[in-house]
Amino acid sequence: MLMGILLIGMLSACGASKDADLSSATGSSSSETPTSDETSETIDTDTSSTPPVESAEWGWHESVFGFAGDGNKIIVPIRGDLDTRDYPDPTKIVLAYGNGGEILKVRYVNRQEESAENTYRDTSQNFDNLAGFIYEVTEGMAKPNANYLLATASAYGSLFTILNSLELNPPLNDEGYKMNYEKAPAADIARMELRRGRNASSSGLIWKADTGERLEVIQFEAVDEEMLYCLCFFAGDSVYIENNYTESGGWRVDDGGDAVNGELFKVNFVMACGDFGYYICVDNWAPEGCYTVMYTTDGGRLDEDGTTPLARYTSP
User: Fold this and answer.
1) Domain identity same for 128 and 172
2) DSSP secondary structure string, 179-212?
3) Are residues 47 and 146 in the same domain?
4) By C-alpha distance, which of 106, 117, 37, 44 is closest to 74?
């Protein structure tokens, strides 16, 4: 299933420096980042009024995934027994990124315990029954059930630009995932066929910026038992690729793996980060849930950036 392909992570790469153990990059991105004004909004980082949490050893992360419920709140789910080393200090989180590039200001409220009414669905309807860290949106409006990357004020730094996208795919309909979608451009498909040495069988244009950057998915014909599909991010003359070699290729429970296309994915936002390349936050939706990942192009290919992906079970 494509639920397992996607990416999402720690974005301290866009700050003043990177931790040496955060990145596995072997060099800086070769893509040319569009020139744009820097984001310079002043963020209030005063946490003196933030509710305290129990003394703990928090992880090195500065960002973590969550999703919104009703009432303009966001939860970072806690799975099983809490290991604080897997999470950033919740009191340091002040921003939420998502929903096409929106930036919300948030405040930590409390740690919510699981209730006896929990249905184990990661949805806004079950929001109050889940175990997790609760955040209140203090500026902006969160979209119920949407996924967000919550971060400290220093996670991204100020030297980034959120790219504006051209709307490609309408929201998924009630009947499933068989909507109209746009295929990847023929020139991009030909380029990838040459690089991979096999013919493409299906493709989809997932996202495109008004400055030309684009994210595509391409599935290739199987060679013997080996199936291959790629996520490809094009920027200028550069292309960054994530390969997925699996026995089942792009198989999904609802389509039998006949074809992959752009309607399976939703891009939450894309950041251009100067010498550090791009950061691409992607949802991979399927009938039973969603898998959200953060990719980076730093290092010359499309890789997960280190943030723990968010896997949500939403099946009725």
Assistant:
1) no
2) ---PPPPHHHHHHHHHHHTS-EEEEEEEEEETTS
3) yes
4) 106
Residues constituting the chain: 316
* Nearest 10 degrees: Cα torsion 128, 132, 138, 143: -60
Four-CA torsion 165, 171, 172, 178, nearest 10 degrees: -60
CATH number of the domain at 104, please.
Answer: 2.40.30
Q: pTM of this prediction?
A: 0.77
Nearest to 7 by CA among 86, 62, 90, 65: 65
The reply to whether 206 and 143 lie within a common domain is no
Q: What is the pLDDT of residues 194-246, one digit of tens each?
A: 998 899 988 888 899 989 999 998 988 888 777 788 899 999 999 999 877 65
Given 128, 151, 174, which residue is the final one in a domain? Answer: 151
d(CA 201, CA 207): 20
User: Three-class SS of residue 162?
Assistant: strand
Total domains in the fold of the chain: 2
Instruction: State which residues form the domain around 57.
Output: 41-151
